[in-house]
Write a structure and sequence with these properties.
about 120 residues; mainly alpha; elongated
Length: about 120
C-alpha cells in the first residue's frame, strides 16, 4: 500500500500543480490570452475554465472529498485533457502540443486507479 500511496500523491500533486496552481497564477497573462485566442475560444471561456480547474484541483487533493464528488473531478479533468488534445490537433495539426495533454491524462489515470485502490483498502 505504501507504493500505491506514494504513486497516488505524486501523480495527484503533479495534476494539482499543472491544473490548479499554474492556471491560477498565469491565466491573466498576455501569453495565456493569446493561447486561448489561438485555439479560437472566446476569452470568457478561459476565465470559466480556470475557475473550474482551480476548484477541481483543490477538490482532488482534499482527502475529505470522496465518492461522487471526486469522480466528477476526475471526469472533468479527463474531458479537459481530451478536448485540449483535440483542440490543438484541430488548429495546429498533429504535433507535440496535440499529445502533451494526453501525458497528463495518463498521470490522471494513474492517480484515479491508485485512489480507488486506497479507498478499497480500509487500512491506509
Amino acid at each position: 500500500m505504501k507504493k500505491t500511496k506514494i504513486l497516488f500523491w505524486t501523480t495527484t500533486i503533479i495534476i494539482f500543480l499543472m491544473e490548479g496552481v499554474m492556471p491560477a497564477l498565469t491565466s491573466q497573462t498576455e501569453l495565456a490570452k493569446q493561447g486561448i485566442s489561438h485555439l479560437q475560444y472566446p476569452l470568457y471561456f478561459a476565465n470559466a475554465l480556470v475557475i473550474f480547474k482551480v476548484l477541481g484541483a483543490i477538490a482532488l487533493i482534499l482527502p475529505m472529498i470522496k465518492g461522487r464528488y471526486k469522480e466528477w473531478v476526475y471526469a472533468g479533468f479527463a474531458f479537459d485533457f481530451i478536448f485540449a488534445s483535440i483542440s490543438h490537433g484541430a488548429i495546429d495539426g498533429i504535433n507535440f502540443q496535440t499529445f502533451f495533454p494526453l501525458i497528463f491524462l495518463g498521470l490522471l489515470a494513474i492517480s484515479y486507479i491508485c485512489y480507488h485502490k486506497l479507498q478499497s483498502n480500509p487500512i491506509n
